């Protein structure tokens, strides 16, 4: 267990603003861990006990840093009354939405804030956090989505997109509920575990420029994110991990206006150059990223090693620190050796003199 | 008999209806075109489809994004709903036929739906298999329809692997049929690794890529 304690301490140390011995390597890894220990991928989401230990054992095996996490990108749908399906076939890697809570304009008025103890994945997430606490992990981290992505999970992103132009008031109604819900969950977790032991993860893949314009980001994402982050930090949470997923370059000037904590962690995909990320966030946040998941899955060991080397050397001296991370979830089907090569790159290039 | 001037007026109106995502105008102008004797095929291809083409150009220039493309497609389909049944021998005038779908295990279809509308606007006949499409269905549908091209979409790294298998199956059954792929995690390099014949990074590029593949066959 000593290695695990050291690994979790490394992230805690960088969060506290102290110098670390080397660049932390926190892969962003879920389904891979289940397969690694012989569990079906779905257990990462359905079984808190198996999920936690699969992640911890995999971390011990590969020697990487960070904390086990719980959550997925479709968060919000089940919690607000929709249905999700766990990954079961060989081609599925995460829960997917089979029924959205809102299927028409009328559905927006029927939306209600979820019951925090019973709704959707929340009981599973709470069980996961308790197991994590009992195992001595200092910080519980749960994926809460972001206001815009949750909204897209409530009413299908195509509907949300149409409303943004034709019926913006409906979009704002859904965003308001998503915002309140995120704050409610943070309150519940901090009152259960203490403000110093919780780091919310906010994911916003639907806010990428692959879907919306920077102008639409400014109108529909920025104000809600600012509010949700400010309210989370007002509760006393010190650090937010914000996964700024996908092509978000045109949104970065707006993201830079959103407080993340002191420091926060902002993670990026390969679409955002680390030098660009450092320009916008380097003084206030730990930069994390940005190894392309498709490369981790399809690339050779040398290609993966090289991309990690480049990332480490670019961002190692970012003012508030750098964490080597996949740009999005490490693919569950990635060759295990490629994860090993990411750790090799850290061992070869990640140490601070 | 409708004058050339009025024909052009109606056609321009249809373009603007699509570009301005005005479904009502698209319907009204489509009805007017029919009533006044404009050739329905011309109203579709020079009016609605050109409007969608222009929307694609604005998307390329990053002036339109997905919300705008979706609304433009709504206007396009609203007009097509009036005009399409009046086009004679529709399939003989089709540029080509394409089978399209999101691969097994993947339910993200927003990209595929935008690609579909661009194909429709460009005059292709589209056989849409939907999402979470079993791997063998792509080649089965190609065989059933005699389609010229198979287009497969995937949004996750895991379903990319399913896509690789789907390409293999199509190639094994009909080696001469071009397969094109697309989706957020894809790159040209990965498409080549999968032995796909074509790749497009977005909906607008997909039709150009299909045109290129069609010329080669």
CATH fold-type name of chain A = TIM Barrel
Integer tally of domains of chain A:
1
Strand order, biggest sheet of chain A? 5-6-7-8-9
Number of domains of chain B: 2
- In N-to-C order, the SSE pattern of chain A is HHHHEEEHHEHHHEHHEHEHEHHEH
User: Mind telling me the CATH superfamily name of the largest domain in chain B?
Assistant: Cobalamin-binding domain
Largest sheet of chain B: 5 strands, parallel
The total of beta strands of chain A comes to 9
Protein described:
The complex is a heterodimer of chains A (about 350) and B (about 220). Chain A is of the alpha/beta class. Chain A has a single domain (about 1-350), classed as TIM Barrel (Alpha-Beta Barrel). In chain A, about 50% of the residues lie in helices and about 10% in strands. Chain A is built from 16 helices and nine strands. A five-stranded parallel sheet of chain A has the order 5-6-7-8-9, with helices on both faces. A two-stranded parallel ribbon of chain A has the order 1-4. In chain A, strand 6, helix 12 (about 250-255) and strand 7 form a beta-alpha-beta unit. Chain A is globular, with a radius of gyration of 19 Å. Chain A starts with a helix and ends with a helix. By secondary structure, chain B is of the alpha/beta class. Chain B has two domains: about 5-85, Methionine synthase domain (Methyltransferase, Methionine Synthase (B12-binding Domains), Chain A, domain 1, Orthogonal Bundle); about 95-215, 3-Layer(aba) Sandwich (Rossmann fold), CATH 3.40.50. Chain B has helices at about 5-20, 25-35, 40-60, 65-85, 110-120, 135-145, 155-175, 190-195, 205-215; strands spanning about 95-100, 125-130, 150-155, 180, 200. Chain B is elongated and about 55 Å long. The mean pLDDT of chain B is about 95. Classes of the chains: A alpha/beta (about 350), B alpha/beta (about 220). The interface of A and B includes residues 165, 246, 297, 298 and 332 of A.
């Amino acid at each position: 267990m000593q290695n695990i304690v050291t690994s979790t301490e490394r992230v805690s140390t960088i969060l506290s603003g102290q110098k670390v011995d080397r660049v932390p390597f926190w892969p962003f890894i879920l389904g891979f861990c289940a397969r690694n220990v012989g569990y079906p991928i779905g257990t990462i989401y359905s079984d808190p006990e198996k999920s936690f230990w699969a992640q911890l054992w995999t971390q011990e095996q590969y020697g990487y840093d960070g904390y086990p996490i719980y959550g997925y990108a479709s968060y919000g749908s089940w919690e607000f009354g929709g249905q999700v399906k766990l990954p079961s076939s060989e081609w599925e890697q995460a829960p997917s939405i089979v029924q959205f809570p809102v299927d028409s304009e009328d559905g927006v008025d029927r939306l209600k804030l979820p019951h925090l103890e019973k709704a959707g994945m929340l009981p599973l997430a709470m069980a996961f956090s308790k197991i994590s606490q009992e195992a001595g992990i200092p910080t519980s981290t749960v994926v809460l989505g972001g206001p815009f992505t949750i909204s897209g999970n409530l009413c299908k992103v195509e509907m949300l997109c149409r409303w943004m132009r034709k019926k913006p008031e409906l979009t704002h109604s859904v965003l308001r509920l998503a915002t309140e819900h995120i704050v409610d969950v943070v309150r519940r977790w901090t009152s259960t575990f203490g403000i110093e032991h919780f780091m919310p993860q906010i994911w916003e893949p639907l806010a990428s420029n692959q879907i919306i314009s920077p102008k639409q980001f400014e109108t529909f994402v920025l104000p809600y994110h600012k509010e949700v982050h400010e309210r989370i930090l007002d509760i006393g949470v010190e650090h937010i991990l914000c996964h700024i997923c996908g092509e978000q370059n045109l949104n970065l000037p707006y993201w830079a206006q959103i407080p993340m904590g002191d420091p926060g962690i902002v993670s990026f995909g390969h679409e955002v150059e680390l030098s660009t990320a450092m320009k916008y966030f380097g003084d206030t946040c730990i930069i994390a990223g940005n190894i392309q998941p498709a490369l981790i899955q399809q690339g050779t060991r040398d290609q993966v090693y090289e991309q990690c080397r480049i990332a480490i050397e670019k961002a190692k001296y970012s003012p508030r620190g750098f964490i080597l991370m996949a740009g999005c979830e490490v693919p569950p089907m990635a060759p295990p050796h490629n994860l090993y090569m990411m750790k090799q790159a850290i061992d070869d290039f990640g140490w601070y003199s | 008999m409708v004058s050339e001037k009025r024909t052009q007026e109606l056609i321009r109106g249809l373009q603007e209806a699509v570009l301005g995502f005005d479904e009502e105008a698209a319907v009204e102008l489509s009805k007017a075109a029919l009533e006044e004797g404009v050739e329905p095929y011309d109203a579709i291809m020079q009016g609605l489809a050109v409007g969608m083409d222009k929307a694609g150009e604005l998307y390329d220039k990053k002036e339109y994004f997905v919300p705008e493309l979706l609304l433009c497609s709504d206007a396009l389909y609203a007009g097509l709903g009036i005009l399409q049944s009046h086009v004679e021998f529709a399939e003989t005038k089709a540029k080509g036929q394409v089978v399209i779908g999101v691969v097994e295990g993947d339910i993200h279809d927003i990209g595929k739906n935008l690609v579909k509308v661009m194909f429709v606007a460009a005059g292709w006949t589209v056989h849409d298999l939907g999402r979470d499409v079993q791997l063998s269905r792509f080649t089965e549908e190609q065989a059933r329809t005699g389609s010229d091209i198979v287009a497969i979409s995937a949004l996750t790294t895991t379903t990319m692997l399913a896509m690789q298998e789907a390409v293999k199956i199509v190639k094994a059954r009909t080696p001469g049929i071009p397969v094109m792929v697309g989706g957020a995690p894809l790159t040209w390099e990965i498409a080549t690794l999968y032995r796909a014949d074509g790749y497009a990074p977005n909906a607008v590029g997909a039709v150009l890529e299909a045109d290129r593949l069609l010329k080669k066959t």
